[in-house]
């Protein structure tokens, strides 16, 4: 159990790297929908970035299980404790679900999934237009959910850092004081 009141350096590094990557993905997704001209280039960026997020999510979950987060402040009300834990597990679920849904969606659509250097991912779903349509809709709706959860996460972090000043934000921002 982590009783040091801070996240380890690996957890902090993964958190901030993935935060930048996930925000980039959200903006890339908006750009893919909004621009016909930029769509091919954005898709070429979106695929490998999504798989990179999936790989980092596996590392992050493994590190979290090995090195649990510091305890929440003792005076934090129970509903906020429940919301904090639930929102983190929702974030983890979405960090896994979004890339896997995208990969399955492309597989169901019969699209090749090129990565870097000629590497192609194998299909993980059968080629089926009906499955493609369901997965595409799910990927889109979960993107909205991810955006909402990220906004709530940032709001909660700012609340802890600026209003409560209870060390929760600094435990991820700086680690050990």
Number of strands: 0
Given as residue ranges, the uncertain stretches (5+ residues, pLDDT < 50) are none
CATH level-3 fold name: Fumarate Reductase Cytochrome B subunit
Separation, N- and C-terminal Cα atoms: 19 Å
What is the CATH top level name? Mainly Alpha
Average pLDDT across residues?
92
CATH architecture field: Up-down Bundle
Q: What do you see in this structure?
A:
It contains five helices and no strands. The protein has 177 residues and is an all-alpha fold. The chain has a single domain (9-173), classed as Transmembrane di-heme cytochromes, Chain C (Fumarate Reductase Cytochrome B subunit), CATH 1.20.950. Helix 1 (9-34) runs antiparallel to helix 2 and helix 2 crosses helix 3. The longest helix has 36 residues, at 129-164. It starts with 8 loop residues before the first helix and ends with a helix. The relative contact order is 0.15. The model has no long low-confidence stretch (mean pLDDT 92).
In short:
This protein has 177 residues and is mostly helical.
Features:
Fumarate Reductase Cytochrome B subunit, 72% helix, 177 residues, 5 helices, elongated, mainly alpha
